[in-house]
Amino acid sequence: MDAPPHNLMTGAVQxxxxxxxxxxxxxPTVGAVVVTGAPADRYLLHFDITDYLxxxxxxxxxxxxxxxxxxxxxxxxxxxGAEGALAKSPLAGMLTLIGFHQxxxxxxxxxxxxxxAVNGLCAGAGMELTTYFDLRFAAESASFxxxxxxxxxxxxxxxxxxxxxxxxxxxxxLMLEARRYSATEALELGLVNHVFADAELLEQxxxxxxxxxxxxxxxxxxQKHIFAAAYSDSHSTGLTEEGVAQISSIMSPVTLGAxxxxxxxxxGDDSVFLTAPETWIAGTELDMNPADAKSKS
Length: 297
Known about the structure:
The protein is of the alpha/beta class. Helices cover 56% and strands 10% of the residues.
């Protein structure tokens, strides 16, 4: 993955993931997919907060019920092949989120083995999408962070999957901490399958991928379908609920203030979670539970 200059998640990166997942499913010669970051110290990060801020400032205030109805309508339109028309409608902003949901579900039941070779920082939406991969291997210097809570956001797709991988308690703790977890910590949690020396990561993972790719796709697909079957309905429903929670959180005045502060603190357009994360991790940069917000809740 190469999204210069900082390997932030974008709508274009999401679209590329979606196109790749479709192409892999259609190509019977592909038995495994290895995804890694092009920069030496970055796998894939969160969404560009500047984009989030623009969306938050433009979004009208709506109830969760209205948001859920609109998101379901948008998903129905996409499923019916009306994505082009949707792109020209007021619901166009939901297309990236819907694309994420489609890609996550497709990866879960893909006949190929999807493997993440996490070579550096894996954060936010980048980490959320990676939870849907079949296997996750990390370099010793890799790290993982879910910073959404610290700026008043909810995850858009990876919260429920993280809870399935780690258990709800550990998943919630990781999100509450909003700090970088080392590769060793991720291994202990069960987030990654194995940790390799930095210089050996890609070679080791490619060797494993080549071996796993020789397994019959039909058997891999059948087994992944069995694994996913227990969650298929709940995953689809849960993804919609996560989408509603994220859209609702973006509309919050508290979140809007946090996004504005974040953008002000950016060094260039790099992630504040690389340049100045301390006060966000501590929860002291802003009061995320102001008295007026409490009175309205």
